Amino acid sequence: MGAEASCCKKEEILEVTNVVHQKGDEDVPDSPDPRDPFAVLGPQGTSQPSLHSQISVLTEVPSLRADQDLMRGISLHKSLRKFGRVWRTKPSRLTEGDHQVLSKVCVKVDHFDVFISHTWETNGRWKILAMMLQQGWPYMIILWLVYSALAGSLFLYTDLLPYNSVFPIQSFNWSGWGVLGCWMRVSGLLGMVTGLFMAPYWPRCRSTLAFVDVVSIDQIDPEMTRRGVYGLGGFLSHSSELRVLWSPQLFSRLWCIFELAAFRKANPKGKIVLAPLYVEMIVGFLLLWLAFMQLLYFLLLQVLQFSSFISFVGMVPVIPCIHQTRKICREKRRLLNELKQFNLNEAGCSVDFDRNFILAGIEEWYGTQEAFTEYVRGPLFRELVAPLETLRVPVQYWVLLGLHEMSSLLEFTVGYMSGGAPVDVVLAQFLSWPISNVLWRIISFRLGLFLCDRCSSRMPGACGLLDFMKTFLIWVVTVVFLLSTFEVTAVVERSSLVVASAGACVTIAVALFSLWAATG
């Protein structure tokens, strides 16, 4: 739970409450003593006895006991409905309409499958993208398969999908003409987009119940808001997993540090997942670039025959993608260096009482603030953060990228079949291009990301042109490698089915080793 918001900024909570309940009235009752955020307003705004004496859970030292009356959660996939509305509005900017929506999506729970730790300082669209891909990748794969099979069948066996052009086929024992359409790449793209946006609505056997601060903490009643905020320790103790949506601002907020400390104390063996948002950002950039490249290839093929020149032109738009990836990796390395030198006193918090409240809990659980600082720099860093020193992309995202690339190459496989090519020729083409060449492309992407990560730094005092030249060199290395694999694949395809099969086996082995090195 982060920074702005329902945790640290008591004044903003009161402001939002006044907007909702008073509907813009100018006469606002006097606020209670700001040094005591547990004080509540009585009639005419007079200060009533502090909640310190009313609610046993709310003490000056955070409690890890949960108040069951406050336990409210939301299905993680449902939080992404309506284009992730839950994640797009900061608690300090909630309207009455927002409150009505939030009250309908939350449910009473006795346990959370996952506690989402994040900061509202980070733009909500990146969180939505990250969780949409995390939740939606299986459905993207399923619908890609369904749409691709349907488009291929309609193109081959009906006249419903017309072809756009013809291309010559020169294979090891057959020559002829194949017909080419755009339907495989269109169906593949539609399948992935549909799977992504349908993921929040897809029927599930079991929903993942999540703690999301804007939903799980009452944002209307000031008293309930305070009870929820200062009862975070209890929510964390009833959570099976702490999932940290890591962004640049996260570990600079004291409340986010508190969540980490409380969860590890309440669940010594509990699962902490550090989910950096930059991974899905990079995957999103790659998917968009691949979609653009496929469109460009298709347009060029209408006027030119397939050649290395077309492949080279299609690779030009990847330059800004590489440059942006280098910036993301540079920011990641800066964050890692900051965590290696973590200082609890530098974590920000807007309200002094909140800071004292959090620090009291840390001292209660870890002995001293210094001991907690050493814990973050040492065991916690080695467990969660050190693996991020190299850029790692989960295997399922590589599968998505591979299938995305396979769509355009399957058009030629279908073209071979529609042109009447023998079975062994079709199999050689399938093994060489939709299988081997796609895997070589994934390996080249992997090489490019590795170089972006290793060469992310910018020399002190260097001008922007020098930094861009580093990006350009990475692009050159990646393109040369990729175009070389195109030539090798073409030779293998024209040799024989046996050679194509052997080439596919070698490529699969290299790809598996590359992915193992990237994730292991």
Automatic annotation (TrEMBL):
Protein species of origin: Durusdinium trenchii
Source taxon at top rank: Eukaryota
Glycoprotein among keywords: no
Basic and acidic residues composition-biased segments: 22-36
Keywords assigned by UniProt, alphabetized: Membrane, Transmembrane, Transmembrane helix
Membrane-spanning intervals of the chain: 137-157, 177-199, 272-292, 298-322, 472-492, 498-518
Region (Disordered): 20-48
Signal peptide as annotated in the record: none
Protein name: Transmembrane protein
